[in-house]
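Example record for the data management plan.
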Amino acid sequence: SGTPNEALTNENSSSINKHGTDTWIIRDENATAKTVTQKFDGSAFIVEKGGVLNINNVNLFGKADNTAEAGGIVYVKKGGEMNAFGATTFKGSTLAGESTKGGAIYIEGGANVFINSDVQFEGNTATEGKDIYAVEESNLSFSGGTYPDIAYGEG
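Corresponding structural encoding:
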């Protein structure tokens, strides 16, 4: 519980789940990128059906040797939505298993994800899609810029 930043910095925390039509906004109002460091295994954010996660101007540092099988930082479920803007960076999420998908972001079929051209991906690893894994029937769109490492396939 608590704000997303509090939960992410809690070493004993489990993933933060978005339910229903709630919207989370994680941003820095002063245009200086804040850093949020994940210190637990699993996805830091799980966006469920009807939920929205908006990330703006934030450095999201994933966990090394994360035991999650998919979506080390963000897991977007069917009917969920994630939007990333500004100087946002998804960094350092390394999934440790033998068959992992989406080092930083995993997108289920029927989910919507938009990534702005300023968003960066650095040092993420997974066996498929070191940065992003998008399941068929998902909606992943970019506004340009440098494209991350993406794998497309079945769930």
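Summary line stored alongside the record: Residues 1-21 have pLDDT under 50 and may be disordered.
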